[in-house]
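Researcher: I'm preparing a figure for a lab meeting and need a structural model of a single chain. I don't have an experimental structure, so a prediction will have to do for now. The sequence is pasted below. Please return the structure as C-alpha cells so I can convert it later.
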Amino acid sequence: MMTGDEDDLLLLSGIQHMAFCERQWALIHIEQVWAENVRTVEGKHLHEHADDPFFDETRNNLRVVRGMPVVSQRLGLRGVADVVEFYRNDTFVDGQTCRLDDRSGWWKPVPIEYKRGKPKPDDRDAVQVCAQAMALEEMLNVHISEGAVYYAQVRRREPIILDETLRTHTTNLALRMHELVRQGLTPKAPKGKHCSQCSLIEQCQPNWMLKHHSVKNYLDRMCRMEVSD
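Model: Understood. Here is the structure written out cell by cell.
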C-alpha cells in the first residue's frame, strides 16, 4: 500500500501526463505551470469527457454509471472514471463479479475512458484505464481483465487488455509520481519528437532548462529582467 492518508492521494487523471512525459506531469502537478489551475483538472476531466456526469441507468443486463469516483490506496491515486459498465450475470463468477446495492444478480465491471481525439502511438490512455481498473478492483474486490477507450474523432472503441506488463508499468508510474512529490522535483527531460505534441512546450522550454532548474525560477528570472529593463 502506497498511502493510507487521503491528503496524500494524487489525481489519477495525471498518470496519463506521467506516461507521456514526467516533466510535463511535474509542471502541471508540482509547479502548477499551466494556463489552467491544477485544481480544475478533476472537474474538467469529469465534465469534458462524459456526456452526462453521474448518469446511472440499467438496460436489461447492462448498468452504465458515468462520473464514478474511484480510489486506489495501493497506487495512492483518486479520481473519476468517465464510464463504468457493469454486465449482469445470474451466477457468481469467482474473482470477476460483485454485488451492487439495490441490484439483483452478480455484475462484472468494465471501465471505459472517453477521449475526444483518435488513438495515440503511446500507452498513456491504456495506463489511465489500467489505473481506473486497479482502483475499481480494490473497491469492489474483483479482478478486471479488460477495459476500453472510446475515441470520438474516429467513433471507435478500443479494448485495453489489463495484463501484468501494463499493471506493472502503471504501478511504477504512480510510484514515480509520489517520489517526485516527496522530492519537490521537476525533472529535466531531453527534447524529443513528443515535445511538438505538448501544450506546455512554451512553459517547459526543454532546450533552455538546466538540470534541477525549476521552470518557476526561470519565469521569475525572466520577469525580473523585464522589470530591470
